[in-house]
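Pipeline run #58 for the internal structure catalog. This entry was flagged by the ingest filter as a single-chain record with no existing model, so it goes straight to prediction. Upstream metadata was stripped on purpose; only the residue string is passed forward. Reviewer on rotation: M.T. Logging verbosity set to normal.
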Amino acid sequence: MIPLKDNIPSRTTPVVNYGLLVVCGVAFLLQLSVGSKAHEVVERYGMVPARVTHPDQPVIVRRPVARLREGILYRKEALAGPPFNPYLTLITCMFLHGGWMHFVFNMLFLYIFGDNIEDRLGHLGYLAFYLIAGVLAGLAHLLSNPSSTTPTIGASGAIAGVMGAYFLLYPHARVLTVIWVFFFLEFIVLPAWLMLGLWFVMQLFQGSLAAATPGAGGVAWWAHIGGFAVGAGAVYALRGVGLIRRELPRAIPATGRIRAYRSRRPW
């Protein structure tokens, strides 16, 4: 499910959210600019669970060297470490991405849901919330596979925290969503609680499946799950002590409305 637009305009300029989009964009362009050495950037600044759990030990990985008749020949070598304490990679990994699709979809989710959370938490509060949610999401992934030598990158965990906050603060917002149905695209308006709730259930299903399948990898499902839970839990706690800015009643301008409709377009 891919959100395209919600019907909750922000009453303040989301300068921090825009700043996060820019920083992630610049970091991604820098990744692309180094060409074939991009994997070295990922290995140095991505979060490698085994490196964080054992910071004093080298992380040994197997790299393919040649394809032989008998199979693939590998060699063992140590990953290049970051130029700072490995714990700081829990922050740097949030600003790296694994490709255009990874980057574009993450930024789309952040653009749609982040401005409203910044509206309710304030600029500095939102920045702290985003970074803390991202770090705790990374720790959730680390705890799910502490011996993994695969670098973890992406803003998905922090953005999942934003989505968890939105789930509690704007459950009845309307979200224009694209759903793939075989070779067709289904455009449908969903309440935020349903769209985000389904997304979270999908992460739980995939995370449980990956945990039950040795060697499964590719997506940090538990970072998504942990980030969403942290975001929702933080908003619940902050709202209980009155630290969430109250949403003021307002008329939504015509440009902010989403008309309920369904249409099917061929892929």
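catalog note: The chain has a mean pLDDT of 88.
catalog note: The chain is about 50% helix and 15% strand.
status: ready for reviewer M.T.
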